[in-house]
Amino acid sequence: GKVGMFGLSWGAFNSIQMAMRNPPALKAIVAIMGTDDLFRDDVHFMDGMMHIDSY
């Protein structure tokens, strides 16, 4: 089959993670405002440090 994924924020992260597994049916993803590294890029935990002012 030909499967595409779309995701915004957490859904984008899920799409990127699925694409990294390289399933044969996945042909395209649209990842909007997502990250592939929650340790380095996450808005709440940049560089592994929790940003209290985000809450």
UniProtKB/TrEMBL annotation:
Positions of the Xaa-Pro dipeptidyl-peptidase-like domain: 1-52
Coiled-coil annotated residue ranges, if any: none
Single GO MF descriptor: hydrolase activity
A Pfam family recorded for this sequence: Peptidase_S15
Protein name (database record): Xaa-Pro dipeptidyl-peptidase-like domain-containing protein
Organism annotation: marine sediment metagenome
